[in-house]
Amino acid sequence: MPTATITRKGEDRLRAGHPWIYRSDVMDANAAPGDIVAVVGPRGRTLGYALFSDRSEIVLRMVAHGDDAPGDAMWKDRLAAAIAYRDSLALDATAYRLVHGEADRLPSLIVDRYGDYLVVQALSQGIDRRLPDITAALVELLRPAGILARNDPRVRLLEGLDQHVEALHGEVPPTIDVREGEVRYQVDPWRGQKTGLFLDQRENREAAMRYAHGRVLDAFSYNGGFALALARRAETVLAVDISEDAVARIKGNATRNRLTNIEARAMNAFDELRELERVGAAFDTIVLDPPAFAKNKAAVRKALSGYKEINLRALKLLKPGGFLVTCSCSYNVSEDAFVAIVAEAAADARAEVSVVEKRAQGRDHPILLNVPETYYLKCLILRKLA
To answer: Of residues 199, 329, 337, 379, which has the active-site annotation?
Structure first.
């Protein structure tokens, strides 16, 4: 079997429970791109087995620990375990994540379910090489009508892999109808962001429904996930997104759900928040769900400035007794940093604010205790006292 020898620092990282070994901690490797390699410590002991990449900074992604090499049945067994876990959640939805990479012991593999169809992403050389076997196992386990590979994320370029979208099994239509609770969506699996929907916010939308009332503002609305969920609890909803296409989807989804109290505007959310403040607007419930402001460490300072700006404006627009649902999906902005910047915004807005709930991504997007990279979505539900 091919081997990779790691440093003492790399060994310590494995023993601490982290499944990634970076290039700087690989002393020597005798392997081809995508191989499963025996990971050897500096004293010659086999520590486990990993997927090998010759291009990424993450050279090794662990798939097993100890002396026993993984067998051919490992991939199907782990897919079955991931599927069984989602079944146990009894999710009130037909769209959700089936496989969440490292958190399902299937590193760099994403599988999302949209009704009778699956959308997969292979984000490393090792998973990309095994995609035919993974596809066959998914067909055997789930009998989907079609499987689509959304292998267009830019992260594939870091692995030396091309970007493409293709059907791997059956036929996948241009749109798929799905449901989250009472809300129905039409998903574009071929071109929509991520694999079609932002599935990680589903349970945060359910939580927000417990508090939403009155006049609602949903900023950075994308396809209107929060707006559609909260509309049944609200008098009116204003959904704001910079994309004309997103606004068209919001309007289409509102019609699909027979919701007549949603107004969608194609506006820069930063500009719209300032304009709403200028004209003296006030809301009972506000949702801030922006895209990742910090995609790398160098962008953190600017990201924190952006988070402070939108939360400051929102708290000025929020009525006393109202609720703010504010989110960050930037992994590089920690929970502590996010909470601190929202607290600064509250102080500058001269608003007294209590924390009602602290939340993360949904249960179908598990967080590994020893892998902070898997905890990326922070969600605060706040109440403005005065």
So the answer is: 329
